[in-house]
Design goal:
Mean pLDDT: 77
Strand order of the largest sheet: 1-2
Distance between the termini: 64 Å
Number of strands: 2
Structural class: mainly alpha
Helix content: 55-70%
Order of helices and strands: HHHHHHHHHHHHHHEE
Strand content: under 5%
Oligomer: single chain
Largest sheet: 2 strands, antiparallel
């Protein structure tokens, strides 16, 4: 009492206070809000389609919101895991059913609660692992992005090409469609950067600057796939299963250990990586995976990203050439019966014309694909390679495993 507070102590208090405010704001804006906002706009968009006499589009939009819960429920059922322990009882089946039916509510709620709990805990020191609650929240968010958001983006782009814009809700025609599409697309780009760093061992989320730079680097890959896949699907229809299956099989092969390349050991990790990287280059390493995979994650990512880019361009470019031939020949009489037998549509039932396809859509897709290839050839340059690198080393102490930021193992020999 009666003594003034030292200036250094006052400055320290202000710094701590500002750091806490920044942590709260970033957690709310970039962790808590995006997932429920994405799911909410998707549900709203699906209901709007049904109300406006488009029940098929609406049912597909609403059905995609159930996919994350179905994947989570089936995964828990196959692994014999319940929310109450590792016991194979009827609770396991009940948990699977609950997630399949109500996962569209439970997973976003789980994500929000987990990130809210992290606000009530002291921030981890640099290099210390995060809590299991935050790990589960990130995993739920990534699951939602890699299933629902990716499906919604491809579906909504296809709807725009087939049926055009819906009626005005707020400002202009199709505003709700574009809002749902934009939020899902932003979620994919944002999560691409976060997933790249999150597989550090042990799991540790990146800073906003780290994930932002990686998201920019991966953006051309995402744009190319978001535009190319809907074009292939809407023109080839059921024949589009062939290139999609080819992509999944090649991704699965590339995610494993190959001659002179690093790869994943467990089959489950390779399957998850193959499915997740259809839209965005990414590698999945489970908590229970081999420690060597965790240690070599930077090199595994580097090798697999290169394989994944070549796979997508190598499969989608020939498919787009076939689409371009069909678009420009389905109006010729001698090709009409063939297209009817194969159920291959021309541009007439779509909102886009042949000229729009030839002079706008196709050049845009080709340019983004070529940019992806150029990006691949320049991936080892300092400008593009540095944002993708991170330092990691496993050090064991009395508390367990934690990250030492000064380590250098970005080029591990497998």
């Amino acid at each position: 009492k009666g003594q003034s507070t030292p200036l250094s102590q006052t400055i320290s208090y202000k710094v701590i206070e500002m750091a806490d405010i920044w942590k709260i704001l970033t957690t709310i804006l970039f962790k808590i809000c995006p997932t429920p906002l994405d799911v909410g706009t998707d549900i709203w968009n699906g209901v709007d389609f049904i109300v406006n006499d488009s029940p098929i589009w609406g049912a597909m939009c609403l059905g995609l919101t159930l996919v994350p819960g179905i994947v989570k429920g089936v995964t828990l059922f196959v692994k014999g895991v319940t929310l109450w322990g590792e016991k194979r009882t009827w609770w396991n089946f009940l948990g699977c059913v609950i997630f399949c039916l109500f996962g569209w509510i439970l997973l976003p709620l789980w994500t929000v609660i987990g990130f809210c709990l992290t606000l009530c805990q002291p921030a981890p020191k640099p290099g210390d692992p995060i809590t299991q609650v935050e790990v589960d929240s990130h995993d739920c968010k990534f699951l939602e992005v890699n299933t629902e958001s990716m499906g919604q983006v491809v579906l909504n782009v296809s709807i725009l090409m087939i049926s055009g814009l819906q009626e005005k809700k707020f400002l202009f025609p199709g505003d709700l469609q574009l809002l749902s599409l934009s939020i899902s697309f932003i979620m994919i780009i944002k999560s691409a950067g976060e997933q790249h760093f999150f597989r550090r061992t042990p799991y540790y989320p990146p800073s906003f600057g780290e994930s932002f730079l990686v998201s920019i680097v991966l953006c051309p890959d995402i744009i190319f796939r978001v535009l190319a896949l809907p074009l292939v699907c809407i023109y080839l229809r059921w024949l589009s299963i062939a290139p999609i299956v080819a992509i999944l099989c090649l991704n699965y092969y590339g995610a494993g250990k190959r001659a002179g390349k690093c790869g994943l050991t467990f089959r489950e990790d390779r399957l998850s990586t193959a499915a997740m990287s259809v839209i965005s280059p990414s590698v999945y390493i489970d908590q229970q995976s081999d420690n060597d995979d965790k240690l070599a994650s930077p090199t595994i990512q580097r090798d697999y990203y290169s394989w994944n880019r070549k796979t997508l361009v190598g499969v989608l470019f020939p498919s787009l050439i076939l689409v371009a031939i069909l678009v420009n020949t389905t109006f010729v009489d001698e090709f009409g019966p063939l297209c009817q037998i194969l159920s291959l549509p021309g541009c007439s039932p779509l909102t886009i014309t042949v000229d729009q396809f030839n002079y706008i859509l196709l050049p845009l897709v080709i340019l983004s694909g070529l940019f992806t290839l150029v990006h691949q050839f320049l991936s080892n340059t300092a400008f593009l390679a540095r944002p993708m690198m991170y330092d990691e080393q496993i050090v064991l102490d009395k508390k367990g495993y934690y990250i030492t930021q000064s380590a250098q193992n970005n080029h591990v020999d497998c």
